[in-house]
Design a protein that fits this description.
- 13% of the residues are buried.
- The chain has two helices and five strands; from the N terminus they run βββαββα.
- The protein has a single domain, classed as 2-Layer Sandwich (Conserved Hypothetical Protein Mth637, Chain: A).
- By secondary structure, it is an alpha+beta fold.
- Pfam families: DUF167.
Length: 101
């Protein structure tokens, strides 16, 4: 499991950074969807499923469904696999960003 802090109604959906360190690290994610009728949660699940190459059914919000602070569980992936996939995603985004300058 890992912690996220979401910012709904953003211009686009993206990982925007982290807060804290080690076991207390929180992944910050901007979501284009509004927090209405569960749409932001659905967008978060779809976004993480795409990054981690799992089905939406494998991504679960275990706590914080009605909060900006959430705990996420990924079924079928170890904590190390999740961390590695998130790091790869961020490195790829940085490369694309730097090449477009």
């Amino acid at each position: 499991m890992f912690a996220v802090r979401v910012a709904p109604r953003a211009g686009r959906t993206a990982i925007t950074g982290t807060m804290g360190e080690g076991a207390n690290m929180v992944l910050k994610i901007a979501l284009a969807s509004p927090p209405v009728d569960g749409r932001a949660n659905e967008a978060l699940i779809a976004y993480l499923a795409g990054i981690l190459d799992v089905s939406r059914a494998d991504v679960a919000i275990t706590t914080g469904e009605r909060s900006k602070n959430k705990r996420i569980r990924i079924r079928g992936r170890s904590a190390e696999q999740v961390r590695h996939a998130l790091e790869e995603h961020l490195v790829l985004r940085l490369r694309l960003c730097c090449h477009s300058m």
